[in-house]
């Protein structure tokens, strides 16, 4: 949970309508009261301050089911990708790596089976051709096994040819490159260069054992979404590239040993407040609350630049609009920055109303933090009225 200095005295202090903020909280709490979610954590930030943060429901923490609180830490799954991407941005702005570089320059083990031409950019914008490459949390934690996976993977299409959302494999060589360039594991690098300078005490990729007592167990709930539910979301069922994700694999995140691993595409363990403040720093031209610069202005402009051209996202039938890690959603007003995540669904919330969305009845809950796709809406509020909502929520089991 962020320190008290990061909290505004009221929503009004940062220019938000308190009635609309309360409407969002009520909407989050409703899902818990109706039994759709065991628990939910919500944070709203603007102008570098958290306007409101609340946690509802119960979660298993340290082996005991008890009320979830603002101190409860949750696994954020693929929202991790935004943090890993932003870590790489630091090395790009320092001239230590370039998006145009071939990944084999840093991770030669990756250069097999037609992957030799894969660039850093291909990996970040999900055009590397390995959308469902096999690999588990356990594989990542075993260096020998991890390198074997790099060599085994075979692209389904030439790198750069198609956009298909990658579940996790594209971030493995990215994290490996970060380690080889810096001499530090990804989790250590993120703590030293991002979390600590931003004052985010509960933002970690990989969680030490003592803190795991505050972490909510991952849990599956509900039934698979029906075909008509996918259609309402505008998503092509059944997202075939999610077949590599099994219930057993996801529930590995309840293993204390695996929680310690810095899994680069799904190992972020944090609170909604910490993620909200991370995005506030990006909005603040890459600077921390005290003015310390983390990311250079030019780097952030490059990070937001769409690089996927006219490539289509086959799951949604629209242009992919991928930047260096995040996706860019074009709508009325400025572009929206997003980071898709397993266990979350995309949902439009009108920032003027601060709350509006309808949940699917059959849902997949990955962790109790769950968010109202403010992985995607992490910057939806900010893009339209420079405010950010972070409302974690669960989608249909087979939808990411």
- Derived structural class: alpha+beta
State the domain count.
Answer: 1
Order of helices and strands: HEEEEHHHHHHEHHHEHHEEEEHE
Helix content: 25-40%
How many helices? 13
Gap between N and C termini, in Å? Answer: 26 Å
Biggest β-sheet strands, sense, barrel: 4 strands, antiparallel
Give your account of this protein's structure.
The strands form 4 sheets. The protein has a 4-stranded antiparallel sheet with strand order 3-2-1-11. The protein has a 3-stranded antiparallel sheet with strand order 4-6-5. Strands 7-8 form a two-stranded antiparallel ribbon. It has one domain (4-391): Beta-lactamase (3-Layer(aba) Sandwich), CATH 3.40.710.10. Residues 331-335 and 338-400 have low confidence and may be disordered. The chain is globular and about 55 Å long. By secondary structure, it is α+β, with helices and mostly antiparallel strands. Helices cover 29% and strands 12% of the residues. The longest helix is centred in the N-terminal third of the chain and has 16 residues, at 18-33. Strand 9 and strand 10 form a beta hairpin.
